[in-house]
Amino acid sequence: MAPLKHLEMENSIIDACFRDFCASHGILTVEDFLLHDLYELAAFAEREANADRLKEGITVMLSLIEVKCRPLLNGMELLEDLQRNKHTLSSGDNGADSLLQGGLREGQLTELVGPSSSGKTQFCMQASASVAEKQDGRVFYIDTGNSFCARRIAQFICGSSDAAALRKRVLSRISCHTVYDIYTMFDTLQGLEVALRSQMNVNEYRLRLLVVDSISSLITPILGGSGSQGTCPCTTRFDGGTWISA
Amino acid sequence: MGEHEARGWIRSDETAKQMLSRVLGDRAFLLLPPLHRVPLRAGNVVEITGSSPTAKTQILIQAAITCILPKTWNGVHYGGLEKLVLFLDLDCRFDVLRLSDMLKNRLLEAYRIGNGAWWQLEESNVKTQDKSKIVYDEELYVSCMKRFLYLRCYDSLELLSTLKVLFYTLHYRIRLQEACGSQVGVLMIDSIGAFHWTDRLSSSLALDKNNRKSLSLTNVVETIVQEMKKLMQVHSLVVIATKATIYEEKYPTNENNRNISSHSDLFGNPSSKAQQPPFREFMPSSWQAFVTHKIFIRKSDDHHKSLGQQNLSAYLLEWLQPQLSSIDRFIVDDVSKLSHLQVLL
Predict the structure, then answer these.
(1) Which of A146, A192, A243, B340: CA 20 to 30 A from B45?
(2) ipTM for the predicted complex
(3) Mean per-residue pLDDT for A181-194?
(4) Do A22 and B206 meet the contact criterion of CB atoms below 8 Å apart?
(5) pLDDT, tens digit, for every residue of B150-194?
(6) Is B15 helix (H, G, I), strand (E, B) or coil?
(7) Distance from the B87 Cα atom to the nearest Cα atom in chain A, whole angstroms
(8) Strands A138-143, A174-178: pairing kind
(9) Residue B211: pLDDT band by 50, 70, 90 thresholds?
(10) CB within 8 Å: A70 and B99
(11) Is A219 left (phi over 0), alpha (psi -120 to 50) or beta?
(12) Judging by beta carbons within 10 Å of its beta carbon (0-12, 13-18, 19+), is residue B63 exposed, middle or buried?
């Protein structure tokens, strides 16, 4: 909720006069500005003494909003982005790969649903090992049920001659975080988002896989009740990696 | 006012025939399969409701392909509208490969039909591995893909700002795109209810200043509807929105009762069905008033055995507004194509 006065530093048109005018219509932040009809606002501005300046202020606000908007992509650009950035990561298991038509796709959320003890955690760990070893990527593993086992992951890594060094290298790319409630998970994810945004150098060990094991144990305490299916009230944007949520 | 001016004022501007031909030329009827039962005009808002997964996005993609294809190209008839499609992805789940595959399939099919080689169609459905016979026009494919414009929004404030900015800058952005064709035919929204829960949460953070509009669910949806109305006025387009039902039906036996009653009163009163929509409506009234056409899709109980002996699930598509007595049944097969099977009554 950015209050309008923070914008004055860079845009001198949004001065106290403009802000008073906006406040008289109940607009104190940028979000309030979005909720209002701009034509109506411009018509009200006509009646004021400094009409031109106010209307210029409205135009500047609109251009500031436009800068934040994403560009329109057409179908060919989407395809190029897919081929260039969104690779398919093998999940380590041939059967699952053939089911997923190649493996886990970057930019997509894959959900594993199953009753307890059906091998979901094993699949997550195998996928982590496969991504860390074969695709040279980092893995961010969010564990909610104390089921993460580094030894098991080491077993998944097939080694050649210098097995120990390889294992150490691969395991160092997997970072495990234990969370027990949804709010800690939000914090962790936000921290991850900030870290990814501020990452200046895109080295080869970039984050490729985000695993949440398991999301149901975080959400069930909040949802409770019966008959109400809802989506998780968290919107996180991870465009370059893959989620698996078990 | 002199007599001359008075007469001029009373004289008509155009006859009804002229008006009809002008309006039908500007805002023509669109027939988008599989929604072809009801012709759509610019200004119509279609809402497709169904639980997840019921092939709603698939329907959108098929309708988009009909929109972006040209009517004819190099002598082959494709039967499209050659208009742009603006796809607002609120679910952020769109897979461009599905669009690409379906488009290639359509181009191949139309090419084969156009060249009188329709008997090769059956072969191509069976031998899906045979890639050597791809004879579609690459240039046509590229120009069609360029007519598909995509935008993603991660929360309702982003959606609001996108709609506001699009209203002022859509023409300019289309020209930047160098799209082949400059008129937007359809605005598609994937999952209009995507931010329902987040908006409901934020309305509990309502502020207590008097004349300030709070960021509540109703206010946000009202503003979204307002912005879309403004967009629709300037660019004559059809809006198609999908909506996932988020409340489970508490009494699933109701559906069987409904089926039985609908068979019995075939020629009976159709309005009795309209009184009970088969899902619980969660969108605010401003959105409900905005929608002009409603479709409901549900999974059919019996599965379909296709040629490949695969158990594909069938879906039933029902028009709720305008109420039609027929129900379409379709399956989604291997090539991600929606094939109509039969019409149920």
Answers:
(1) B340
(2) 0.80
(3) 88
(4) no
(5) 999 888 888 988 988 888 888 777 777 765 567 788 899 988 888
(6) coil
(7) 10
(8) parallel
(9) low
(10) no
(11) alpha
(12) buried
**Cβ-count burial A72-93 (b if 16+ within 10 Å, e if not):** bbbbbbbbeebeeebbbbbbbb
- Put simply, the answer to whether A66 touches B100 (Cβ < 8 Å) is no
CB of A96 less than 8 A from some CB of B = no
Q: What average pLDDT score do residues A63-67 get?
A: 86
Flag if A76 and B146 touch (Cβ within 8 Å): yes
* Peptide bond preceding B284 in cis form (omega within 30 of 0): no
Q: Chain A partners of B88 at a C-beta cutoff of 8 Å?
A: none
Q: Between A65, A75, A82, which is nearest B165 by CB?
A: A65
- Using CA atoms, how far residue B52 sits from A226, B114, B315, in Å, is 18, 37, 12
* B197: nearest CA partner in chain A: A233
Which DSSP category does B322 fall into?
T
Q: What domains appear along chain B, each with residue ranges and CATH number? A: 29-114+136-206+214-249+277-344 (3.40.50.300)
CA distances from A138 to A131, A170, A204, A211, A214 (A): 8, 9, 9, 11, 19
Q: A82 and chain B: CB distance < 8 Å anywhere?
A: yes
pTM of the model: 0.80
Quickly tell me which residue has 């092939």 as its tokens. B55
Q: Which of B279, B258, B260, B262 is nearest to B270 (CA)?
A: B262
| C-alpha–C-alpha distance, residues B119 and B130, integer Å | 16
- Say if CB A116 and CB A100 are below 8 A apart: no
User: Which residue, chain included where needed, has tokens 């949806």?
Assistant: B221
Residue ranges of E strands in B191-279 = 238-244
Least confident piece of the model among A28-37, B176-185, B256-265, B281-290: B256-265
Cβ within 8 Å, pair B150-A78: yes
Radius of gyration of chain A from Cα atoms?
A: 24
A34–B151 CB contact, under 8 Å: no
pLDDT of residue B236 exceeding 60: yes
